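Dear colleagues,

As part of the handover before I leave the project, I'm documenting each prediction I ran so the next person doesn't have to rerun anything. This entry is a single chain, and its sequence is reproduced below.
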Amino acid sequence: MSNLPIRIAALYQFARFDDPKTLRAPLLALCEANGVRGTLLLAREGINGTIAGSDFGVEAVLRHIRALPGCNAIEVKESRAEGLPFHRTKVRLKKEIVTMGQPDLDPLAGVGTYVAPEDWNALISDPDTIVIDTRNNYEVQIGSFEGAIDPQTTSFREFPEWFRAKRAELEAEGRSPKIAMFCTGGIRCEKSTAFARAEGVEDVFHLKGGILNYLEHVPEDESLWRGECFVFDERVSVGHGLAPGDHGLCRACRRPLDRDDMAHAHYVEGVSCPRCYPERSDEQRARYAERHRQAELARSRGEEHIGRREEPTTDG
């Protein structure tokens, strides 16, 4: 994989940006000037996103990000790809860099205890540890850790309500929770453990660097991970060693698809899958079909169908 030409960098940093709007234009211009694509989110609480491009281009953007307030020690999870996994460059303004619906929560004020991938197996194998997958249901369905609880959320906004109910359930059983949480790259765990501590739970742990860090550093024959890990780019999923997985992606609903899904009568490339078919109207599917047709025409001409240039957006 090290010989592949495209460098992919997934990153996040909780920091305190007084005016994130002023950071947007220079960051977008630098990405575009260096041919770097992907999405970066800026909020008063920090930065989050994944970018891809040449080694030179990505490094130029990372140097700029490390110079932002509080970002000098930002951790970056890197991988390689044959081609660019993103079609556009987006730098968006948000209320939160990972939307939990708790804008007053300050992850810098007190997250849980970080656990290195090499120590994670021992923690989650302890029968007194309650292991929680903080990701959404469509992510959990293709892979998770053995014994982890799936909150079955469709959005991270649902997690606080679920957590409060789960905590009440555990305390009714007379258990004092010792909780280990995990997510794809670590960002949701930063917030979910900070939330748990703000709710009065002290014995809280989370996987440093998330599932991706674990899959990179823990050998498959020692791993307690089962399945694949959904990622938010054109790779769709990865396995141990961050090798590309076997899942496809529904372009209509952005959910991962296995081989059975793609063999289903309701799967039409670019238009629908078995999960979203009953959720969409004929009119919507017609729009998706036209979008897919335009993308295929562009591809046949050796062009890219990337839509309009990104404009400033805010989280509504």
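The first strand starts at residue 6 and ends at 14. The domain at 6-93 is CATH 3.30.70.100 (Alpha-Beta Plaits).

All the best with the project,
I.
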